[in-house]
Design goal:
Elements: H1 12-36, E1 39-46, H2 50-60, E2 64-67, H3 71-78, H4 90-94, E3 101-106, H5 110-119, E4 122-124, E5 136-138, E6 141-142, H6 151-156, E7 161-164, E8 167-170, E9 174-177, H7 185-194, E10 199-210, E11 213-216
Helix pairs in contact: 1-3
Length: 232
Amino acid sequence: MPKSKRNKLVTLSKTKKKDKEQKESLVKSVRDCLDQYTSLYIFSFENMRNIKFKEFKEKLKSSSRFFLGGNKVLQIALGKSEAEEQKEGLHQASELIHGFCGLFFTNLPKSEVIRGFQEFEELDFARTGSVATETVELQEGPLEQFSHDMEPFLRKQGMPVRLNRGVVELVADYTVCTEGENISPQASRILRLLGVQMAAFKMHLRCRWTPNEFEVFETEEKMQLGNPSDGS
């Protein structure tokens, strides 16, 4: 009689060992980069989209390297205190590792880095639970953008619709989502069908570290582009 997969045991010691090895590898890789690149930036992000992030990394791979991982592990890699820091001033950067963030090592000039992060923005469809950036309302009447076979699906999403001579018709005004409120699973599906993109994948620089300088950017969202002569 074949054994049930549900009876299969997982050795926790092996799992813990693998996890420890991965963390140690991450710490080593980060520390190696301290000698390979001229600058380190801590950056935060919102509405992460893995494919778009991978494309952004690919463009910069010849001059830069990104790290995402557990914040505590990244802090250990740099040094959580002045006594533990791998290089002078790194504990200040470590203190800014919190929330959704990562490390960016690069040999690019400061002005080019700031410009690249400021200009980066990728729109996508909002996911369930995200906050609506605008109110989307549909007026009573025909919804000619939807084919007749979509009517049952739209009804399941809570929309007051019916078929009228083969055309999907909204029998009353309907609010898909309201600005400032969380987007429901149903609203997320409808917004995708309508082609409305509310999620903006952005990255913001928090600070810059070099062996000779440490700089905290005043605001993450609105940084003034520095003089090109400042960065190298």
